[in-house]
Specification:
- By secondary structure, this protein is mostly helical.
- The chain has a single domain, classed as Orthogonal Bundle (c-terminal domain of poly(a) binding protein).
- It is built from 5 helices and no strands.
Length: 114
């Protein structure tokens, strides 16, 4: 049986790996072994950071909402309690968008909740 050299498939594998590290600096973008390690770490961090992003946005919504509420003399915690008591089902993301982009609508909303 004839000997099969793996040059073509090895090169294809290497190109695939190096295409994933485009934009990385130094050996991480040119050397296969370093590139594999860089990809592995990048995948680990991307999972964690996708989870962190959800927390970051929730924190941002709370901050925006609190800023809108402080202008009218309310606190975030008391406002959320009032919402729960009145059984108003609107999420923090929508509330923060209204408080940030449309303050006059937010004032009307506050009048109904109080």
């Amino acid at each position: 049986m004839a000997r099969v050299k793996g040059g073509v498939s090895a090169l294809k594998r290497r190109r695939k790996i190096l295409s994933q590290t485009k934009g990385y600096i130094f050996g991480r973008s040119t050397k296969k072994k370093q590139a594999i390690e860089a990809i592995h770490h990048a995948h680990l961090h991307s999972f964690a950071h996708r989870k962190d992003k959800k927390n970051d946005f929730r924190r941002l919504w709370t901050t925006r909402l609190n800023a809108g509420l402080r202008a009218s003399g309310l606190k975030y915690s008391t406002f959320m309690k009032q919402l729960k008591d009145k059984k108003v089902l609107i999420n923090r993301k929508m509330l923060s968008e209204i408080a940030d982009k449309r303050p006059e609508s937010f004032e009307r909303f506050l009048a109904k909740v109080k």
